[in-house]
Amino acid sequence: MKAAALLLGLACAVLVTRAAAATSPARKGVGAQKVIIKKASPVKKTVPAPVRARLPAAKTVQPATAPAPATPDASYDERELIKMPSPARLALRAEMRDRMVALDAVLQRLSEGKVEEAGQIAQLRLGVAVWWNHTQLPAVAQPEQYMPPAMQTLALDGYKAATDFATVALTGDRHTATAMLPQLTGSCTQCHQAYRIR
Ligand code: HEC
What we know:
2 domains, two-stranded parallel ribbon, 2 strands, binds heme C, 7 helices, 198 residues
């Protein structure tokens, strides 16, 4: 029995030694890998974390035809902030919502062939007339005075594009009126991409 136990002990000892010998190169390998990772990690750290987080998101969100990605992340917002008092901000936003409704109505009428009606709506609710409507607001609520000159120009361009569209649509020329639409909608987009008020 004693001899058997001794043999078993010896066998175990041999096995353990072999196992140790077998794992030691592997350990060296792991160690070497660790060194590589350690060397690589400072390079990764040179790119600031927020930038790395943003880049892939921009690529996945961006639709092929849109020039800018739509995202709720405020850190993306590169539009110039135009500060104006609350009454002016509310007045501008209210006008904007009406412009959206009016534009929708214009497109509907146009597709139904009611070209003159589309022209009337554009003239009254999107055209230069809207600019003058602002003078009826209390002085503090008139948005234009807070706009930088470039933004005022964009605003005026937008009203003019609508009035031009209206002038043509009122003649019943559906084809030319339709061709002028991108100029009108483009004016909305141009300003929205450049400015924000909050
Ligand atoms: C001169 C610049 C300018 C033009 C032109 C313009 N917008 Fe705006 N619009 C703005 C600004 C600034 C905001 C507010 C953005 C923000 O919330 O910071 C806005 C906001 C809006 C909103 C959101 C309103 C709300 O309740 O927040 C709608 C809808 C809108 N615009 C529609 C239009 C449409 C439709 C047109 C074209 C027919 C148009 N806009 C043309 C500057 C413009």
